[in-house]
Amino acid sequence: MPKKDNMSIMDEFKNAPAKEVVKSSRKLKVGIIGTGWIADAHINNYLRMDDVEVVALADLVPGKAQKFAEKWNLKNVKCYLSHKELLDAEKGLDAVSVCTYNRTHAECTIYALKKGVNVLCEKPMSVTLEEAVEMRKAEKKSGKILSIGFQPRMDPNMKKIKEIVESGILGKIYYIQTGGGRRRGIPTPFGTSFIANETAGIGAMGDIGCYSLDMVLNAIGYPKPLTVTGYKSAFFGKDPHYYPTHPEYADVFGVEDFAAGFIRLEGDIILDFRIAWAMNLDTPGDTIIMGTKGSLRVPSTECWNGSVGGPMKVYSEMAGSQVCTEIPILQSPDLFYDKIRSFLDAIITGGKAPVPSEQIIINQAIIDGIIKSAELGKEIEVNIPKV
To answer: Looking at residue 1, what is its pLDDT?
Structure first.
């Protein structure tokens, strides 16, 4: 056995425990609905799994699915012009990845579930709370799995946040500050699908804000929101000077590039949230979870996308002294691969969705509440129908 140097041995405590490998006794038949840029990440990881066969693609743009198949050298894959065509024609599908515009997440997901097909739906879950409720209803009725594409959940550092909260070391949680942003980061390198209202529906909140909300809500057990006071703006997105080569994008911009919310949660917890695609600032601040016995600080990053910006710190009191404990950064595995693999493993084992819709519907309710409150200019109550 080759020898390891002292540094590599000492570093092994930083790594997450190895996961048990789950393999299907047959190849799982998978389809991809929507072949835009995020679909590249899905197919790249599906092709790494020897128990998966991608058998069908669908895209509304004529020829786009065929070009995607050629790009990835997919043999014997069938291409369709809509999710309905694919799901009506393909028999024996085990799962589909829904990689379409935000506005069509609900439509495609619900149709697939009604056809008895498990769904991995890219984030955000939907555009509105009403859509999320219908998706959850379809999932329950079908008996199939609906998992939402939140790969930061797979990060051991994110899991550590939940472990710290659940350990009780912070005491009762009463205030949370979270969010993130990019100094300049409106996602337009692939066109206007992320910024046009008719395709995206929501902007920064649906792109990166949902990750930030999940980071803290998952840690505290996803309590329901009671009231929301929201604000949103689009000062950068509607400025033609923001796009030196495409000033016309400013006329297309129909979502928010900044949003903030003050949310009262069950359990007498306050959530102070803000998210930005563009701002004249490096970061809107670290994530802070404050408790009666201690508080946790999660450093932000300059280009927030569901990650931890450095070692986390727990502030507490010990034997009458105020102390600060630094949590070492854990090595992150391949998060996107793990997102897809955990979804497929749940199908194979009959397990639960790794990122369940009954949680993310709460995430969506907060985003929906911020939008509605901002448009009304006042605080609103949030009511999530029982499903």
So the answer is: 39
